[in-house]
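Predict structure. Chain length: 169.
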Amino acid sequence: MLKTERLRIRQFHESDLEDFELLIRDKMSSKYAPYDIPWPVDNFRDILVCLINDDAWHAVELIEKSKVIGFVVASRTEDETIRDLGFTIHSAYQNKGYAYEASCAFMDYFIKEFGIRKFTSGTADCNKPSVALLNKLGFTKVQSLETSFANDSQGNPITFLASIYERMY
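Prediction complete.
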């Protein structure tokens, strides 16, 4: 478990189910949802169990409320010294520096504990808050591409411009 001044960054627990469901429903209703891999919303318990058993996924808990307000993830890659960073903070708690605070502590932990030498991350170019956060975290844009993760109501791919970022240590 990691602790910052305001946050506890820890493995998910079964008791997080209610907060987790609220978080994912909020994420999937965001204007940026079409630019992310869709989350199934029919069985949150099964998804949570998978995350509980994966040390790459961590809950971001607001200490003062003992409430899960987000998550950070350092997904494995083919190279064990590289992890792919992801983050989500519930919209009610955004613009307060929580994603930055959690990401900094989380990356430091993975550098020290697992010898990570590089983090990568990707986001839609139109997701200005995520682009700004990656820049603030010291990431550099290394690639631009057109991609799609979801389809519209007619089954057509929702394509968008995205960028890949990396930070070396």
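Summary: The two ends are 22 Å apart (CA to CA).
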